[in-house]
């Protein structure tokens, strides 16, 4: 039999549940936010020993925990690499995202995310969702103040829905290693849909990115005398 470390009984304990500290969520740059399995699931895993006997939580204690989490006052947060392997993990993750009403810079890299369309991030200026499983711009959160958006290494097939960001102050966009990158006249189509955009995939807006298709085609023609 394997010997369990003294810390084993704490592996599903949230940082808010640890006594005698006053650390708040907005003081953490890269927190782990996954909730542990339910008691029923732990029983089937034969890991019920990892949970302390739970007492009934009062409304006051719930409110104190919410105040300690303090996600509403986060301005910059990295929630990447959360390993959201189960549905209850993802639901807790989204619960936290819904509370980020003041976040301005947010990293959600490599979380196997597929749809955050129900999430609104009203003050977010910089969002990095690289290495997820988004297939459409429609699956992104509502980000009306976005300036820098990175979507590298997702599975976005077409540019359909990109015009939803037309009225946002979006200045730079990264779509590297998405299937839509191979679409004909890719750069021209992106810039025509996003008039405020200054940089795409790390390359500034070029004169040929603004040329109508027929003019670009004309320049490629050769004249035989």
TrEMBL record:
The keyword Repeat applies. Keywords: Leucine-rich repeat, Repeat. PANTHER family: GENE 29133-RELATED, LEUCINE RICH REPEAT PROTEIN. This is TILB protein. It comes from Xiphorhynchus elegans. The lineage of its organism: Eukaryota, Metazoa, Chordata, Craniata, Vertebrata. The gene is Lrcc6.
């Amino acid at each position: 039999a394997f010997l369990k470390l003294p810390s084993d009984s704490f592996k599903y304990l949230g940082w808010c549940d640890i006594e005698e500290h006053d650390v708040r969520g907005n003081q953490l740059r890269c927190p782990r936010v996954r909730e542990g399995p339910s008691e029923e699931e732990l029983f089937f895993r034969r890991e019920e020993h990892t949970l302390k006997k739970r007492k009934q939580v009062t409304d006051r204690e719930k409110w104190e925990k919410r105040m300690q989490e303090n996600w509403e006052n986060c301005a910059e947060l990295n929630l990447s690499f959360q390993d959201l392997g189960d549905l209850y993990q993802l639901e807790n993750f989204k619960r936290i995202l819904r509370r980020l009403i003041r976040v301005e810079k947010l990293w959600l890299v490599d979380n196997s995310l597929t749809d955050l369309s129900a999430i609104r991030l009203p003050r977010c200026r910089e969002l990095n969702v690289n290495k997820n499983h988004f297939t459409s711009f429609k699956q992104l959160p509502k980000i009306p103040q976005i300036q820098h958006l990175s979507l590298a290494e997702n599975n976005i097939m077409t540019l359909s829905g990109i015009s939803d960001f037309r009225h946002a102050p979006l200045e730079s966009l990264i779509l590297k290693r998405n299937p839509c990158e191979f679409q004909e006249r890719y750069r021209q189509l992106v810039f025509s849909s996003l008039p405020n955009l200054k940089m795409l995939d790390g390359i500034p807006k070029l004169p040929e990115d603004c040329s109508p298709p027929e003019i670009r085609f004309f320049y490629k023609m050769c004249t035989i005398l």
